[in-house]
């Protein structure tokens, strides 16, 4: 009798494991809440609906299958050229990310496993640091030094913040696209900080977006010094109506990034179902 019960229990555990595997492997569901499973994300211990500041320094590396990159990010489906990888040295406090030469826009970004919950008046702040090298820039390609996207799952209604070839900050959305000139120095670390707030306003369509670059010096540990800011007032009801945002991050060597480091997620947390 004990043998029969053990056999049944083993079959039950196997069945549950198969169900969990299939739910994590479903690439056909385009709902942001179902693109991946929470098991893919290092546990924060913070319940959904609460604010969280989460820094990923890319210093944790045990193996190719256990490191800060694979534990906290995944690639979008079809990212054939997404060869970004984690290394153990060269970063601000240890490890960092080596970006690929080029990317197919945001289709080959790395995607953070948590979502932001979008609420009126609540600011979402995302940042990534990068080491700049002007000699890496390919003048024949329009690659971006670094970029952060907030994706609400509505086609062409996301919002992007990026630096192009080290000389301008751009904020871009469905009905907005403007830039501010900046000047970066080779071998300096910079922190690219982006902010998004749904204001609402009289017609429930007002958004405030801001991107700022801070110089961190040659070792990445100097006191941050702002070298440029772009602030945008955007009117887009689809953005304001968004319940959640997915965070996509990119960077390229041909855009001038030698390394990426210190990703920060700061806002109201929402896990993927």
How would you characterize the overall build of this protein?
The protein has a single domain (2-270), classed as Jelly Rolls (Sandwich), CATH 2.60.120. The strands form 3 sheets. Strands 1, 4, 7, 8, 9, 10, 11, 12, 13, 14, 15, 16 and 17 form a 13-stranded antiparallel sheet that branches. It is 12% helix and 44% strand. The protein contains 3 helices and 17 strands. The protein is globular and about 50 Å long. The chain is mainly beta.
Low-pLDDT runs: 1-39
What does the radius of gyration come to?
A: 20 Å
Please outline the major beta sheet: 13 strands, antiparallel
Roughly how much helix do the residues carry, as a percent range? 10-25%
Kindly estimate the percentage of residues that lie in beta strands according to DSSP: 35-45%
Order of helical and strand elements: HEEEHEEEEEEEEEEEEHEE
Total tally of structural domains: 1
The tally of beta strands, per DSSP, is 17
Q: Please tally the helical runs, counting DSSP H or I stretches of 4 or more residues.
A: 3
Shape: globular
| CATH architecture tag | Sandwich
Structural class: mainly beta
Q: Which CATH class applies here?
A: Mainly Beta
Explain briefly what this protein structure is.
The protein has 273 residues and is mainly β. It has helices at residues 2-24, 68-72, 237-241, and strands at residues 51-56, 61-63, 66-67, 73-75, 85-87, 96-98, 110-117, 123-132, 144-151, 159-164, 168-173, 176-181, 189-200, 206-217, 225-235, 244-251, 257-270.
């Amino acid at each position: 009798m004990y043998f029969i019960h053990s056999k049944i229990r083993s079959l039950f555990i196997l069945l549950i494991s198969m169900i969990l595997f299939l739910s994590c492997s479903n690439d056909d569901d385009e709902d942001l809440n179902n693109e991946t499973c929470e098991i893919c994300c290092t546990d924060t211990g913070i319940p959904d609906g609460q604010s969280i500041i989460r820094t990923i320094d890319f210093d944790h590396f045990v193996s190719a299958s256990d490191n800060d990159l694979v534990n906290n990010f995944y690639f979008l489906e079809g990212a054939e050229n997404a060869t970004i990888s984690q290394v153990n040295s060269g970063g601000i406090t240890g490890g960092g990310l080596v970006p690929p030469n080029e990317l197919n826009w945001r289709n080959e970004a790395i995607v953070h496993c948590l979502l932001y919950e979008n609420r009126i008046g609540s600011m979402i702040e995302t940042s990534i640091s990068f080491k700049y090298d002007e000699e890496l820039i390919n003048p024949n390609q329009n690659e971006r030094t670094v970029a952060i996207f907030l994706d609400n799952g509505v086609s062409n209604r996301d919002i992007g913040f990026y630096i192009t070839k080290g000389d301008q900050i751009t904020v871009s959305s469905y009905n907005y696209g403007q830039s501010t000139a900046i000047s970066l120095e080779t071998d300096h670390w910079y922190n690219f900080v982006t902010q998004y707030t749904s204001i609402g306003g009289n017609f429930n369509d007002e958004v405030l977006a801001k991107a700022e670059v801070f110089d961190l010096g040659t070792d990445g540990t100097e006191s941050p010094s702002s070298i440029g800011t772009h602030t945008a007032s955007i009117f887009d009801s689809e953005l304001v109506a968004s319940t959640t945002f997915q965070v996509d991050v990119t960077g390229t060597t041909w855009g001038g990034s030698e390394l990426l480091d210190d990703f920060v997620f700061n806002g109201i947390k929402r896990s993927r179902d």
